Predict the 3D structure of the following.
Amino acid sequence: MRKLLPILFLLVASACSSGPAAPSIEATQQVCNDLFCVDVPEGWVPEIGDTYIAFNHRIDPDNTFLTVGTLDMEAVVENAGGTWPVPPEEVTAAFWALLDDAEVGSFERSARQVGGAIKSWGNHSDGDMWHLLYPVDGSRGIAIELRAPNDSWETHADQVFTSLEVLKAES
């Protein structure tokens, strides 16, 4: 039995972590549109739109998703059945409730960041997920979402989250 325990542990550990591990962050590149900029680790390939920037990572483009975009916080809250206005923590809870209702995501925890942004952690049908809500003004916010096959990608999420620079209000 003692010889079997390490093998069982390895089988369980490998079953819980699917997909490739995130590469270490050696360098970053700044990617911007007219509204915001973020610094992303090398390997993320951008698609730049007027109100968003979307990325996939070269290592696993079918299972790594990074998006930065404007978010109508009022719409999120109301679509989840709430009433606007609410604090950012409740917007984050509403966001995860919508994912849960659609049976594509589940919330684990959240934390307020310096400056008022809310970072949250959870799971998505694709694997692990990290979300940052950065309130801008009124009901406008900037949201960053990173979905990846396992938790090794959290360092990439943290890099992007801490680099967000809001340039101007949306026209």
